[in-house]
Amino acid sequence: MRFPKRPYSRFKTALHLKKALKKDLAFRNGTVIGSMCSAPSRYAVRIFSKYIGKNLGDPGLCPGTAEIEQEAVHMLGSLLGNPDADGVFTTGGTEANFLALLTAIKMTDGTRREIILSDCAHFSFFKAAEMMSLRPITIPHNADYSINVGAAAEKISDRTLALIGIAGTTGTGSVDDIPALGKLAEKHNLYFHVDAAFGGFVLPFLKKAGYPSKPFDFTVDGVSSITIDPHKMGQGLTPGGCILYKSRELADRAAFPVSYLAGGKTKHRTLVGTRSGAAVLANWTQMVCLGEEGYVRIVRKCMDLSVSLARRLDTIDGIRCVKIPEINVVAFRSLKTDPERLSRKLREAGWAVSLFDDYFRIVVMPYVTERTLRRFLKDLKSFTGDSHE
Ligand code: PLP
Q1: Are 269 and 254 in contact (CB under 8 A)?
Q2: Is the full-model pTM beyond 0.70?
């Protein structure tokens, strides 16, 4: 398409978009079962639209919005066991993980260039390492897909910049042994970042939802910073990530001074400059409108479905669950049908399921229903040759 000479009419514009977007999958149409993004409430979307022009890249223009951001940050800090935590909203988990590594670099003299992380870590760390000329030292996972802490300990040296722990891996939802990693971090005086981009809005509510939960937050000694994404299980809207640091002092280490903005001298704590204040306001809205009770209800529903899905997957001939789900991420292997072939068939049938190296992943978000999963299981059975119910 060329840049139009004449302006489009609204009718033509709407028609063009409608036609193009017909191809998109919608969260609530019942085929998206492999996305970690949430479908925000209508009310949050309304707040987003109402305050669409707010730009937190120039907080002097919108000090009220900046105050709400601080409220949201402190709410998240208290959720994660440290009301004094400080931080900033980001475009998502990727930016938050970048910022963690940037902060770690700024805490050292620049000679330490290695980060130690699980081979199940999100690719954002590897992207960040490439851009910041860091060397990722990947540690093999245990049978439950958590990092092998002993192997991580062996790799620590005077070149180590940071330790990374994952609280809810992207592929299997596994939670690393954060207390053991925290001990290592303390022993060797290392920066320790926990990526709870997805798990951060699940793990704090698991106990009250009737499921076991592992320690992963600021109550664990040694944790320097945590990624937590409102646009994942926070039920917020995109862009909605957040990085929390254990203290204001640490949060300020990655801050970049800017002199000319509306509020006078200020500091940017993000990678991006101009950023959506409306998204922060909408994500704040989502959190206060749900509260702990709302999240417990959502997590219980997602976990009940996840556990029942895992049980039913295991009954299909040629399908084996990778593990009992720790959070609402269900991973399974295809033992008989070639995974690429199965993936293709599922896509052809309209299912958006992620295929990792040798396993599939379903994310049981709140918009995933029992009816949808029943339809999926039926298709899966027919594609793997096990068609009896
Ligand atoms: N960390 C984890 C554990 C994730 O699962 C993801 C995305 O799925 C990210 C980070 C990156 O988040 P985003 O896509 O919001 O940048």
Answers
A1: yes
A2: yes
